[in-house]
Design a protein that fits this description.
Elements lengths: L3 H5 L25 H7 L8 E2 L2 H4 L4 H16 L1 H24 L7 E4 L2 H17 L8 E5 L4 H12 L4 E5 L8 H16 L5 E7 L1 E2 L4 E2 L2 H10 L4 E5 L11 H4 L3 E5 L11 E5 L21 H5 L8 H4 L1 H8 L5 H24 L13 E5 L9 H15 L1 E2 L2 E3 L10 E6 L6 H16 L10
Helix pairs in contact: 4-5, 6-7, 8-9, 14-16
The structure holds pyridoxal-5'-phosphate.
The site of pyridoxal-5'-phosphate has 13 residues, from helix 6 and helix 7.
């Protein structure tokens, strides 16, 4: 397989027979109207108050249409697609991402399916270093207690099994300030280094999923550097489109973000940034093909026959977000302001609190639920979520938090705000919860 430099020389892809590129429209698009936003998301089920963009994201119609063109182009002449278009088009998306995230070089950017895949790539590399004796048994890898479940399992599967010691950073929730997180992180590093061992890897979330908290990433990365941690991997599955993402400012070795959560890509596409250094050399895609050994970006760009179309529409997504005032930065700023306002409205209506101060939230907010709902375990939280979906048409994830320090709030809803949301959806949620409380319904009596 050719190197990346070879791909640089390929011309941009033309989708049309006549050589026009619909991906590079010349005219400047005017700002999107409310009616156009409704039309872009008119495929959403109108019977559902979808205040959960955080789980699976969303994709507008114009991007779906562009994706469909790629799919048809492949089906029309698969060989021409494979030999002429696929690699230059993936490179085009990687180049757009490189600029979005302020990376130094396109070779630092690989496109993978999702953050779960990216975590496997990084953690398999750590596991190999343990099993091949480059790291001592009992050297440590540190991760947050609120790391995503799949990432925790990957740590077990790749790091613990290879002899590494995995240390969890205990985090408070509700949380009131960054210092609480920083103090716990320092303690975990101390435990990792005790007995003369080394901390080989720190896995840090940029934005934790459940409960949702924006982590003081730059501070934690700096602490890792000061304390001699070998490698830093940032799981930022939620980040691009909901917070500022700048590789030079953050300074981690590895950083992944989904583009299908908050950046309007179709499912599924994520980038994995790997800072240029010799640390990149032993990174491999878990799916091995004939391009194995050509560097992660090239390995990731061919993992066998499949649908690559989601990866190819990143330029169209940029066109879409640029129809909004301030582009993606404007979108995320407004989403943040609106979700905080909605969270405060709900907390006031229910007499509860937010799970963290607004500055520790992105486009999602944790809102305390009324204690009278009787949420007393994880399965209660799931029952309530299902009940809200099936009986009230409200889609929102619920988090159970064990009782602590006399605080009666044991359940939090994670609400999201994306461009398609309207205030009535949050009112539907408020009213559904109020009805359950007024009717004396508790999780104990919910069957589904
Ligand atoms: C923090 C975090 N990491 C990883 C993931 C996994 O993302 P995906 O399912 O797209 O791989 C998620 C998904 O919500 C997440 O929130």
């Amino acid at each position: 397989m050719a190197s990346d430099d070879h791909h640089h020389r390929d011309p941009p892809v033309d989708l049309n027979e006549n050589g026009d590129s619909p991906n590079h429209k010349k005219q400047k698009l005017s700002l999107i109207t409310d009616a156009e936003i409704r039309s872009e998301f008119s495929h959403h089920d109108p019977s559902i108050a979808r205040i959960n963009n955080g789980s699976f994201g969303s994709c507008p119609k114009t991007v779906i249409a562009a994706q469909n063109q790629w799919q048809l182009k492949y089906l029309k002449q698969p060989d021409a697609f494979y030999f002429n278009h696929l690699q230059p088009s993936i490179l085009r998306s990687r180049t757009v991402i490189k600029d979005l995230i302020n990376a130094d070089h396109v070779d630092e950017v690989s496109i993978v399916d999702n953050a779960t895949t990216a975590a496997s790539i990084v953690l398999q590399q750590t596991g190999r270093a343990f099993s091949e004796g480059r790291y001592d048994k009992d050297d440590a890898a540190v991760m947050l207690h609120y790391a995503y479940g799949a990432v925790k399992m990957s740590m077990q599967a790749y790091v613990t099994r290879a002899g590494g010691r995995v240390i969890e950073v205990q985090l408070p929730f509700p949380v009131t300030c960054n210092d609480e997180i920083i103090a716990e992180f320092r303690k975990a590093l101390e435990r990792g280094k005790s007995g003369g061992h080394k901390v080989r890897l720190a896995v840090i979330d940029h934005i934790t999923s459940m409960p949702h908290v924006v982590i003081p990433l730059k501070e934690l990365v700096k602490i890792c550097r000061d304390e001699g941690v070998d490698q830093i991997f940032v799981d930022a599955a939620h980040a691009i489109g909901s917070t500022n993402v700048d590789m030079k400012e953050i300074g981690a070795d590895f950083y992944t973000s989904n583009l299908h959560k908050w950046f309007f890509c179709p499912p599924s596409v994520a980038f994995l940034y790997c800072r240029k250094s010799d640390k990149m050399l032993d990174l491999h895609h878990p799916v091995v093909t004939h391009v194995y050994g050509n560097g992660l970006a090239i390995e990731s760009a061919w993992i066998g026959t499949r649908d690559y179309s989601a990866q190819l529409v990143v330029p169209e997504v940029v066109e879409f977000v640029n129809r909004f005032e301030g582009g993606i930065d404007g979108i995320r700023t407004r989403n943040h302001e609106k979700v905080v306002a909605m969270g405060e409205m709900l907390a006031k209506a229910w007499g509860t609190n937010l799970g963290s101060p607004p500055e520790m939230c992105s486009s999602m907010v944790m809102v305390g639920l009324p204690p009278r709902l009787g949420i007393s375990c994880d399965s209660d939280a799931m029952k309530l979520r299902t009940h809200l979906r099936e009986c009230f048409g409200v889609e929102v994830p619920i988090y159970y938090r064990a009782p602590k320090d006399g605080d009666p709030v044991t359940g939090y809803a994670r609400i999201s705000h994306q461009v398609y949301n309207v205030v009535d959806e949050y009112y539907s949620f408020r009213d559904a919860v109020n009805k359950l409380v007024n009717d004396g319904v508790t999780c104990a009596v919910l069957s589904c």
